[in-house]
Amino acid sequence: MFTILYLVDVLICIPVLMIGFGETVWAVVASIVVSFVSRANEHRTVTTRTDRHAFLVTALFLSSVVLIPAFLLGEPIVVLPAFLSSLLKYSLPQGFLARVTRPSIEKLDPGDIDTVKRLKKRYDLFKRIVDVFVAICLLVLLSPFLLIAVIVVMVHSGRPAIIVQRRIGRAGKDFMMLKLRTFSSRNGVHAVNGVGKLLRPLRIDEIPQLVNVLKGDMSIVGPRPELPDFHQMGVEHVPNYESRLLVNPGLTGWAQINYKYTTTPGEYMEKTLYDLFYVKNRSFLIDLKCMAKTPHALVKALLARKE
Fold first, then answer.
1. Beta-bridge partners for 163
2. How do residues 172-230 score in pLDDT, each as one tens digit?
3. Residue 12's domain spans which residues?
């Protein structure tokens, strides 16, 4: 959705024209990409405290990442507008931002819940190809971090570093999900250990699930893979819950980037409406948006833990 916030991204790049047209084009592209990835729901990002903070942190981090190749290419100036635009939008009055943005539809209306049950075989086949390609690329890029994490887990907690957990996948079928071990057991009680407190907020413990994507048990984007107990709670308490099982569970997803972690049946029912919205409307653009917005969701979760 185009808003005045993207217009700010463009206008703040105009002074770069004094250097050259090509540099201005790259500055606009960098500013818009950083702006898009750094925000979740357009309206919520500028009207809720945690989302605003997450936007700024994510934007500054992404701008810093983009600055590295720009500096190597001798054009660091093209990233400056992204920094300035992020700071400007963060400092704009909240009331003004609330007026120039509008809420977007993120979840399924309960009245439309019976329209979910439809298959998209062509897109699901295309998505499978994308899943394999993205999973291979991410495994290559993230393998050094995974190796370091495995060593840290083994030094801190011993073997095994990678465990399997039973989860519910597509069509309600069980599968064994891979995950770095971040729990310790004392007197039969499982609790997050010191390493887990570092790895879990950053989702580093979920990197092994890329293997599940390659095996076809999961997708890059989809509903959260649920534990059997949560799955049973959904079946018993959430109308049309089974429709979320029309697709593979995902590493990230529409509900994950737009809703919080659930702890009650009421929250779980609310989150399922986001899952059903994704199942009904899934497309390449929505999948791309879920992947692009994941950094913002991670930063928001980290900030929410500290508040």
1. 179
2. 899 999 998 888 766 666 667 777 777 777 788 899 999 999 999 999 999 999 888 88
3. 4-100
Give the residue from 70, 100, 130 where a domain finishes: 100
Neighbours of 105 (CB within 10 A): 9
Q: Return left, alpha or beta for 177; rule: phi > 0 is left, psi -120 to 50 is alpha, else beta.
A: beta
Assess if residue 105 is contained within a domain: no
Whose CA is closest to 45, among 19, 6, 10?
6
Examine the domain organization and report whether 170 and 266 are in the same domain: yes
pLDDT tens column, 104-159:
667 776 666 666 666 678 888 999 999 999 999 999 999 998 999 889 888 887 78
- Indicate whether 282 and 217 sit together in one domain: yes
Q: Whole-angstrom Cα distance, residue 11 to residue 33?
A: 15
- Rounded Cα distance, 105 and 234, in Å: 23
Global pTM exceeds 0.85: no
Residues 262, 167, single domain; the answer is yes
